[in-house]
Amino acid sequence: MFNKSITSKDYILAMFNKEINMKIIKNIVAVIAILSFASYAQARDQIKIVGSSTVYPYATVVAEKFGKQGSFKTPVIESTGTGGGMKLFCAGIGVNHPDITNASRAIKSKEKALCEKNGVKDIIEVVVGNDGITFSHSVKSPDANFTKEQLWRALAAKVDVNGKLVENPYKKWSDIDASLPSKKIEILIAPPTSGTRDAWNSLVMNKGCSKEAKSLFGDKSKKECAKMREDGYAVEAGENDTLIVQKLAANPDAYGFFGYSYYLANKDKIKAAAINGVKPSLEGIQDYSYPIARPLFFYAKKAHVGVVPGLKEFLDAFTSKKAMGSRGYLTDIGLVPLASDKYKVTRTAAKDLVTINLK
After folding, report:
1. Which terminus of the chain has a lower count of CB atoms within 10 Å, N or C?
2. pTM for this prediction
3. CATH number, domain at 245?
4. Which of 241, 270, 291 lies at the terminal end of a domain, its last residue?
């Protein structure tokens, strides 16, 4: 109950002052958090990186070379998948949160919102280079060529048959098309947290989804076309692409998809199927004539620059021509370099700490 001696005017003023005081307190807490981060930074004197398993090999090579220079410690890198990395990256500012997250697709609007909500507002976006998702299988199996629609029909939860949507009935590749092998469909897929899975959904599942199915799905076609079957023909294989390579090498009937660098590094064990008649190549990925080509990214926190030792220098090293250029050492392990105009943009972002719009 209110004291009867307090007037409405007094109450309004009291509440107004309370609101002002709360804002002041919030601002003080924010300043204390930043100062605490700066004073506590030496508790973590290594750059911490999370994110994409596809970008992981490139980041690891840069980190190792960076550490060998002797000025700063080698950054610690964890392969968490793009989605998992974004959750960790966007959780907050400070030594308990990563400085960089690798990503095999661009940051999503909901991830931007999460970052902003948690005070991660100044984010630097670096386009690392280009990559091609390879649909690979054992070197012991015959060469293969698929259309995007055939791959969609092999993996989709629901497909159109005789003008109706039905649960995926295809058990063999030849059930989809008589020209395909008469062997069981078995595809190792990345988990939903994977940026490679997101890219596959965008470039294969949505592009390959038949016109009839899109019409039947209606307004929900983008979401429904990307849904994968769960009846044992599509098998989630985790974020470890090296393990997927090993499984493909051991099973000539299985297929799996991952980044171009893993295909190049394991050509003695696996080979890539053609997509729409085109096999992955450096040239085809750079000019996007290979049907499943995509850009790769990493994101860095500007607030951590100058606080975590070596962060600005690492951004400079990663985006140098020595690393990312057309003759850079990252091309030796499969990174497809950016065209010169796009390289200038990403180099400027890293050097000048240019941040993206979160809206």
Report:
1. N
2. 0.79
3. 3.40.190.10
4. 291
